[in-house]
Amino acid sequence: MVDFADRASAQEARDREDAIKRARGTHRKTKPMHLSCASCADPIPEARREAVPGTPWCAFCANEKEKNND
Question: Is the pTM of this model over 0.85?
């Protein structure tokens, strides 16, 4: 026989999992998506946009900025 505490605990676990899924999904959507590089205007490949969400630079320009400590 399932009591009130067991049902409440199960519901709490489902709510917690739902909240985690929402938070993870929301985090990805809040980053701005740049389709072209802010430095050279070349397209930023989809793989880079997924690997570094919100990056405003293509890989080449990002490496150049790192070398120059910008």
Answer: no
Closest to 39 (Cα-Cα) out of 23, 11, 18, 62: 62
Task: Count CB neighbours of 64 within 10 A.
Answer: 14
**Total domains present in the chain:** 2
pLDDT value of residue 70: 64
Q: Which of 47, 35, 34, 42 is nearest to 61 (CA)?
A: 42
Written as one letter, the residue type at 25 is G
Dmax over Cα atoms in the chain, in whole Å?
Answer: 68
- Both 37 and 14 in one domain: the answer is no
Q: How many CB atoms lie within 10 A of CB 36?
A: 13
Q: Are residues 67 and 43 in the same domain?
A: yes
66 and 36 within one domain: yes
Coil, helix or strand at residue 36: strand
